[in-house]
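In response to a reviewer's request, we include the raw inputs and outputs for one of the modeled complexes. The four entities were modeled together in a single run.
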Amino acid sequence: MGTYPYSEPETEGLLREFAMAKGFNAWLNFELLAAGQGQIEIRQEVNDDLLQHHGFVHGGVVGALADTACSWAAATLAGDVVTSSYTLQLLAPAIPPYLRVRACVIKKTRSTASVEAKVYCLGENEAERLVANALASIAILSS
Amino acid sequence: MGTYPYSEPETEGLLREFAMAKGFNAWLNFELLAAGQGQIEIRQEVNDDLLQHHGFVHGGVVGALADTACSWAAATLAGDVVTSSYTLQLLAPAIPPYLRVRACVIKKTRSTASVEAKVYCLGENEAERLVANALASIAILSS
Amino acid sequence: MGTYPYSEPETEGLLREFAMAKGFNAWLNFELLAAGQGQIEIRQEVNDDLLQHHGFVHGGVVGALADTACSWAAATLAGDVVTSSYTLQLLAPAIPPYLRVRACVIKKTRSTASVEAKVYCLGENEAERLVANALASIAILSS
Amino acid sequence: MGTYPYSEPETEGLLREFAMAKGFNAWLNFELLAAGQGQIEIRQEVNDDLLQHHGFVHGGVVGALADTACSWAAATLAGDVVTSSYTLQLLAPAIPPYLRVRACVIKKTRSTASVEAKVYCLGENEAERLVANALASIAILSS
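The model returned the following structure tokens for the whole complex.
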């Protein structure tokens, strides 16, 4: 992509093949923009099935996006991982149809990674508006 | 249902009409079992679109179920609400196809409700296995 | 005590000897009321050094009490433990001088315990008022 | 201080006068290094009373430091505040005697601020080692 200095094409290929092509992630329409070195960026085009009754993106979708970004960011450093816990703050209504998330590993120990993620919705000209802030503990299975 | 002493049929009807019939909640196949007096129970039959690459229920689905249960539990006491934040612990793989969640308001102030939720998957004979534990702060909009 | 069916005198003795008699715990004046089978109850008489500038018990004291209760509750089942993370909701002002906390292990895996704690301040006649709700992930070191 | 571009001397003076000089904060020996524009940095020299039974800084002290930094960071933007909830990840043993915390407001709405804090212990030559990561929701009272 040129704009992601942390990008590792091989890692991105593995994530696209094994984690994004199936089940919920495929259905949620997650598009991996970049992955590598403990960082990740995902874009999502949200269809009407993912809204709540006020017309905003459902908090569960925002949470799934944040959780996925945190676990994949850890996976770029640690291979097989699983989310232990995360805290999600919902800060503003997530206006469809475009979400973007950036996640970054803050510290990796032998068994756990601390990962932060921020979720944005996009207005005109791709102007970002922060809608959620997340902090996750990701368990490293291969430890 | 008879087995839910907190059940309030009118509240349940409102939730079914306004919150469950549309968008993500309808797609997730949430079935409200009981609601009232700050408590709620929801059952979900999970189809294959909601799994992750190991065949378990996607953590995002578990999170959406917990978040939804917490906000609706608060809604039974406080009307219009929105989730401010929640912490989700993922404690065991969620084996499809059946999930169940119970949520309970622990304290309600003028502006906020503290709500706990526990998510179970169901084995044979409806034996429950705890897969997630959540603690949410729900903002009360009508305050 | 008679009122704590989960009480295990040997466990309580170990906690009093190794964890309560020294450093911060001793200074905070934690008094163990009961411990055993994944449950614990602690009472604290709060002196003026532990208040904040409005005269309530400092949130850091409430957090320390909740964190300590969670880790000790896990220790009754798992031996040597350390807190990985916790979420604390501060729900009401903690009025001095008496706090009480009850913690309970919800699930224990090989490596982690999920523990809940509730902190109360005490009014006249020991009437309890909930001031904080906590959810902790405790790492089991001996796993 | 020269090294803190966000420093606002008047804000720092108010925090020192009203929040740091009394009770628990005074006892914990918090030293405000800089405050302003939603950011804060605090240093703490930890005496032996604040250790746990392994000789590390007690998690409750680390939590109090993180919580205090988050609420004060919000106070630089919003005046009178109170912590609603926070999640604390304890990532490594906090080796005495020096801790340092930096907190930053990520988003402020009318009623709430989302604040992140990182706590470090200091080795020789003030080399920092990350020991805790926190995410807080701070309620704005003057809203």
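As requested, we also summarize the result in words. Chain C has three helices and six strands. The mean pLDDT of chain C is 92.
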